[in-house]
Amino acid sequence: MDDTNFTQQRSVLEGSTFRLSCSAYGKLISLSNGTVCQATKCELHLVNYTRYDPKIIECIADNEKSTRISKVVHIDVYYPPKVTINVRTLIGLRSTDVFLECSSDANPTPLITWLDDNRQEINDYNFYTVKTNNLSSILSFSVFSNEYPNVLYYCQSNNSIGTVEKLIDISSIKRISNSLCLTFYYLGFIDFNLKSDHEATTVRILTTHSLRRQKIGK
């Protein structure tokens, strides 16, 4: 450690092995597993370090003749992206609204990009809407029957450590949009006037009639 800084930052690649050293005057005695001490310097060997290991490590020097001193190291573990996909739909009268959500766990913060079936970046914002924050992105659009041929999409996430992408196939959504029909009904009443020798009675019967059948989509 640099003797002039009491707090340091250390970036490591996940799965790697690295060493932290701490120097102090006096007779050094190791109190931590994995620490090797020689003369006035101790080294801590960290093997296969992951994002789940401690983010802060402190070196403390203390004896009966001095005030306790310490130095802190903040560990920033870098790892490649991992992507998860969530698909939601909202079926309307003439179209199906599709929401593709791509979430990425990575460090450093990844860049999320949407690609079409030709593996070209999507930038047609007249047809698509993209909402992105640090670790997720939502691509939304409407599907009309036999209107837009693209059924394959790719979510690509990359940072300085690596790149990953996932394929999303919405062909089943288009089939649902093409085949779904709506039947509309209207209600009617039929009145019957029944007469007897003593009084007249009106009976009303509720009826339903199919008005038309409309297919979702153009």
From TrEMBL:
A GO molecular-function annotation: cell adhesion molecule binding
Membrane topology per record: Single-pass type I membrane protein
Domain Ig-like, chain residue ranges per copy: 81-171
Signal peptide: none
Keywords on record: Disulfide bond, Glycoprotein, Immunoglobulin domain, Membrane
Alphabetized Gene3D superfamilies for the sequence: Immunoglobulins
GO cellular component: cell-cell junction; plasma membrane
Domain of life, per lineage: Eukaryota
Biological process according to GO: cell-cell adhesion
Locations listed in the record: Membrane
Protein name: Ig-like domain-containing protein
Taxonomic lineage of the native organism: Eukaryota, Metazoa, Spiralia, Gnathifera, Rotifera
